[in-house]
Amino acid sequence: MTIEWRPTAEIETLKARAMLTARVRAFFAERDVLEVETPVLGQGGSTDVHLVSLSTRARTDTGQHTLWLQTSPEFHMKRLLAAGSGSIFQLARSFRDGEVGGRHNIEFTMLEWYRPGMSLEALIDETAALVMAVAPHLARPVTRYRYRALFHEQLAVDPFTTSLDTLRRLAAERGQMSSQSLTDESRETCLDLLMGLVIEPTLGRDELSVVVDYPASQAALARRHQDDDGQWVASRFELYLDGVELANGYDELTDADEQRLRFEQDNQARRRLGFQEVDVDERLLAALEHGMPEGAGVALGLDRLIQLALGKARLEDVLAFATPRC
Amino acid sequence: MANYSTNEFKGGLKVMLDGDPCSIVENELVKPGKGQAFNRVKLRNLMTGRVGERTFKSGDSLEGADVMDLEMEYLYTDGDMWHFMKTDGSFEQYAVEKKALGDTEKWLKEQVPYTITLWNDKAISVTPPNFIELEVVETDPGLKGDTAQGGSKPATLSSGAVVRVPLFINQGEVLKVDTRSGEYVSRA
């Protein structure tokens, strides 16, 4: 048997990758955003119901502990913000169990940055500017869409008011799923399927597409606000390029009580679904209690941006050693 | 049979879908930014040969299909069924229906080994070897000296297949044919 020891990326690609990463650092240096490095391991993990965290056991001066590998550097970076760091960015190794494919790798690089005092609108502009600074040949007009409008235009349904039965039927039909497979599924699952399978592939074609006003239930660590129709929505955006989701930004939630409530709701949902519960990050909550400056933050999948910038077919083409060959 | 979860769906895995055995061709993770993950799966239905796409929630599972490929020699047909014998020395025989035989009927030759796909020990498809040697039983007379020029004509082979052959080929000659494309390769 031949053992596959060679890199999954060509050496020439890794050279190009290094050049693009240098552009990221130059972009933030120019804007006076501080580069930071925070731990990959944490005593609390992400409670996000749809992320599976890896964990490990570590021996410290206080004995054996379970430590979680971060799914993004968000919690540590927010603690820096609460401690008065000002604007910060990080190229952070992040881990999401089970995520392997043409656009996913269990271990990946998240480019995450936070801008105290900046509005979500201004951060959308900055995110688009970053993408074009890294890949000037991909410069395109930026088009904003409301989540709700995309469903109206492409599927003739309303994500908030169309009956669940209709959404289940539509999702099963468009996803080529067996008709009974969605009968017990939530509105969220149906919307995720329609967004991921039908709408996403159409976004970011000849433009940078920005989607705003996600359902309030998909707020995660973002604030909520009422949109022009009086509907509660998440103060969150996603940026798409060539049908690929590149970045996810929030008007950051700074309310410690609200944040604790959302973590607990996540864990309740985890119990209901039979998933492992995750220790809530008490240090993050204490930092929010102390006070984190209001502002916006965004996480961008750097490997995906590099993949698109270099015109590669699969994520592993820009990773020295993709997880299956690590 | 065991159940297989979406993260075990690899190319070639045999699973049951809507009552038919299927072979997985491709499996791709689709995950919106902050939500439920799905697997977009391409499957080949082993009864019909058709390839289709289906979506599963990540973590969903399918029952495995008891499917295996065995090498067997063609023996004879009684008109209703086509009879094959395992080449492992067991002399065990299997009868194959016309429906399972499909297009392979026109490539049958005694004592040639075929790949028989069994589902629950019943033959559901027969795959001929990539290349097979067959005799020409009918074609227009060959053109003498025309060994290099282009041009072709139909020739009926002993198995019943009709293939395009060069003009110089004569009745009674044995030809090597590619069963995948149905094209003439050379004189045997």
Automatic annotation (TrEMBL), chain A:
Keywords: ATP-binding, Ligase, Nucleotide-binding. It comes from Vreelandella malpeensis. Pfam families: tRNA-synt_2. Gene3D superfamilies: Bira Bifunctional Protein, Domain 2 (3.30.930.10). The gene is genX. The keyword Repressor does not apply. The keyword Nucleotide-binding applies. Residues 20-324 form the Aminoacyl-transfer RNA synthetases class-II family profile domain. NCBIfam families: genX, PRK09350.1. This is EF-P lysine aminoacylase GenX. It comes from the Bacteria.
From TrEMBL, chain B:
InterPro entries: Elong-fact-P_C (IPR015365), NA-bd_OB-fold (IPR012340), Rib_uL2_dom2 (IPR014722), Transl_elong_fac_P/YeiP (IPR020599), Transl_elong_KOW-like (IPR013185), Transl_elong_P/YeiP_cen (IPR001059), Transl_elong_P/YeiP_CS (IPR013852), Transl_elongation_fac_P (IPR011768). The keyword Aminoacyl-tRNA synthetase does not apply. GO terms for molecular function: translation elongation factor activity. Keywords: Cytoplasm, Elongation factor, Hydroxylation, Protein biosynthesis. The modification N6-(3,6-diaminohexanoyl)-5-hydroxylysine is found at residue 34. It comes from the Bacteria. Residues 69-124 form the Translation elongation factor P/YeiP central domain. It is found in: Cytoplasm. Pathway: Protein biosynthesis; polypeptide chain elongation. Residues 132-187 form the Elongation factor P C-terminal domain. Gene3D superfamilies: 2.30.30.30, Nucleic acid-binding proteins. May be beta-lysylated on the epsilon-amino group of Lys-34 by the combined action of EpmA and EpmB, and then hydroxylated on the C5 position of the same residue by EpmC (if this protein is present). Lysylation is critical for the stimulatory effect of EF-P on peptide-bond formation. The lysylation moiety may extend toward the peptidyltransferase center and stabilize the terminal 3-CCA end of the tRNA. Hydroxylation of the C5 position on Lys-34 may allow additional potential stabilizing hydrogen-bond interactions with the P-tRNA. Belongs to the elongation factor P family. HAMAP family: EF_P. Involved in peptide bond synthesis. Alleviates ribosome stalling that occurs when 3 or more consecutive Pro residues or the sequence PPG is present in a protein, possibly by augmenting the peptidyl transferase activity of the ribosome. Modification of Lys-34 is required for alleviation. This is Elongation factor P. It comes from Vreelandella malpeensis.
